[in-house]
Amino acid sequence: MPVQVHRLTENKIADWNRFVEGCDAATFFHKAEWMRVLQSAFGHKTHYCYAEENGDITGVLPLAELRSPLFGHHLVSTPFCVYGGVAAATDAARAALTENARRLAEELRVEDLELRNLHPQNPDWPTKSLYVTFRKEISADHDANLKSIPRKQRAMVRKGIEAGLSGHEVSGIDRFYRVYSESVRNLGTPVFPKRYFSTLRRIFGDDCQVLMIQHEGRDVAGVMSFYYRDQVLPYYAGSVHAARALKGNDYMYWDLMCRAVERGARIFDYGRSKVGTGPFSFKKNWGFEPEPLHYEYFLVKSNAVPSVDPTNPKYSQLINLWRRLPLPVANVVGPILSRNLG
User: How far is CA 320 from CA 36, 276, 312, in A?
Assistant: First the structure.
């Protein structure tokens, strides 16, 4: 029978996730739960499609629309996720899902279709080489992991330990959001709504961990991480000004690495960074090597790939203005803008 492409329905979610768990090309961000996150936290319209051959799912493609007067109308796999695109077990399924996505993009008359691939899939499509990811295998031995960190960065971890920093897993997101919102405001970036983090925590449960770093009883840094298969993905992180002198960020990732090992993690996925930025250098200094991400675009109404990111010079004045906003104001206005900055 030919490949058939269907929209995901509630009665197929278990089958979808079962395929994702067994597909080498799939990632944490291909899980069906992201459909609920995007719908409930942001109200975005989703188009989750799967390929079926002889009654079995052989490929999945999560898609969602971003529609904004400021940033345009885009179809993305997947917004707010660093990885996406087609995850398929057969070439036929991959081709069918890609063609279905192209037709959908044209029907919706979006500016472009964006597939956030770990590996190239459509070599004739325009690409964006702005992002890389950092992934590394970690040992079950804490001492071995510490020794694998280059000497200068390892010294930063030791300074955090000597400063008396301590890590604590927390069940709620209030403490994390206070630190995170201050951190992104200082970077000039609109903060995501608090309900987004609450939704992640509620939907992913124990696979979504919140770790807070304290100094003398005060929160100085925090990170929200995802666990998937044998991987840990520190995904959202922030710190207050005091964390810099205390080496709070270095200690935080070391503490997380130790906890991840105890949970059986084998891969530490430091996640996406823009080439040439501070986070890019920070991760390289930890001994992680950058791997290019292959974000591919099918252009519909647009004649160029989108460039909605802080490194775009036309946003520099807005970023400088945002940094000067009082935190309560930034926390009210930010979520209105950030819902379309996925």
Answer: 34, 19, 13
Of 256, 155, 27, nearest to 270 (Cα)?
256
pTM of structure = 0.91
Under-50 pLDDT residues of the chain: none
Contacts of 330-333 with C-beta under 8 Å, sequence gap 24+, read 330/181, 330/185, 330/190, 330/191, 331/181, 331/185, 331/191, 333/190
Give residue-wise pLDDT tens across range 10-67.
999 999 999 999 999 999 999 999 999 999 999 999 999 999 999 999 999 999 999 9
- Closest C-alpha to 256, from 271, 277, 241: 271
Q: What is the pLDDT of residues 236-267, one digit of tens each?
A: 999 999 999 999 999 999 999 999 999 999 99
Assess contact for 66 and 79: CB atoms under 8 A.
Answer: yes
Q: How far is residue 229 CA from its own chain's centroid?
A: 16
In the block, which residue shows the tokens 């090597």? Answer: 289
Q: What share of the chain is helix, strand, coil (3-state, %, to 5)?
A: 40, 25, 30
3-state secondary structure at position 27: coil
Kind of pairing between the strands at 267-274 and 231-239: parallel
Tell the residue number behind the tokens 């597939």, with chain if given: 115
Q: Convert 217-248 to b/e letters by CB count within 10 Å (16 or more is b).
A: eebbbbbbbbbbeebbbbbbbbbbeebeebbb
CA–CA distance, 167 with 216 (Å, rounded to integer): 12
3-class secondary-structure state, position 264: coil
Peptide bond connecting 78 to the previous residue in cis, omega within 30 degrees of 0: yes
